[in-house]
Amino acid sequence: MKLLHKDIEKDNAGQVTLMPEEAEDMWHTYNLLQVGDSLRASTIRKVQTESQTGSVGSSRVRTTLTLCVETIDFDSQACQLRVKGTNIEENQYVKMGAYHTIELELNRKFTLAKKSWDSIVLERIEQACDATQKADVAAVVMQEGLANLVLVTPAMTLLRAKVEVTIPRKRRGSCTQHEKALERFYEAVMQAILRHINFDVVKCILIASPGFVRDQFMTYLFKEAVRQDNKILLENRPKFMLVHSSSGHKYSLKEILSDPSVTSRLSDTKAAGEVRALEDFYKMLQHEPDRAFYGLAHVERAADALAIDTLLISDKLFRHQDVPTRSRYVRLVDNVRDNGGNVRTDSAERGGCYFAVSHR
């Protein structure tokens, strides 16, 4: 994400102009938007025209509209963001008060105006624009015929490719069809890795599967790398790590990141921080329950007593459309930070908890 302009007054009202540069930036934008905000962006509008002869035609024109946001729709798989609202500025193609839906696009700037920019939203902008806050962990979760390639960022888990190939069963006396299908499957997964993983940024690539699928794939991957003299794969071989998973579906990623061997390997990556903090909370809840609290009321009492060391909170709470409720969560976070506590905001995409606190 690129910050092009920022104009926020002392009363916290104002606007920012941003340009999303990659798919994850749409997730950040989704977390910035709230009902009642003002969004100005380039969009396509279908316009009807009437000629001098009376015939009516239609054409699609690109124009810039300013909407009062009413509905926000985010597709987490495709990373597409659509915002519906009413037009609040005069436009030659769209009347005042008319409804329109803007689909925000990569590398096209937009301006977002709010009556009040709170600390959580401003922190989200800083995180989105920080070049170091990128995906430094990739994972291929696979089983025979199915593979999900995901990038794990500090903000979310991003599905970049899904590979599905029908694998025939082995037949007595002949395994040819089975082996050919497996080879096609492994080749498709290999191409997905080369296409979607930036080896300059990613520090670790987890290959996870039940059984021996991961071992067979790794053998194929580097056999092909040697045959094709693929220097990218050969130079980055130490980054690959084989891990057990119960299935090849995306939901298995949570169990993979909780594996102790993976946790130690990912100790210097950003994604491991949230996993470690949650594990520490569960251990404390089990062994020292008097020092661990969850639930909004209990957590707020602990914050008022200046007793919070670490607060874990899901970013889903900050998308609450009820302003007083959202403000309550923001006050809690500000209170913990002002009194020297640590705050970790985890993504609901990764199953982030609502409230979990380590008590000092």
From TrEMBL:
GO annotation terms (biological process): nonfunctional rRNA decay; nuclear-transcribed mRNA catabolic process, no-go decay; nuclear-transcribed mRNA catabolic process, non-stop decay; ribosome disassembly; RNA surveillance
Signal peptide as annotated in the record: none
Subcellular location: Cytoplasm
Recorded coiled-coil stretches: none
Gene3D superfamilies noted in UniProt: 3.30.1330.30, eRF1 domain 2, Pelota, domain A
Function recorded in the entry: Component of the Pelota-HBS1L complex, a complex that recognizes stalled ribosomes and triggers the No-Go Decay (NGD) pathway. In the Pelota-HBS1L complex, pelo recognizes ribosomes stalled at the 3' end of an mRNA and engages stalled ribosomes by destabilizing mRNA in the mRNA channel.
NCBIfam families: pelota (TIGR00111)
Record protein name field: Protein pelota homolog
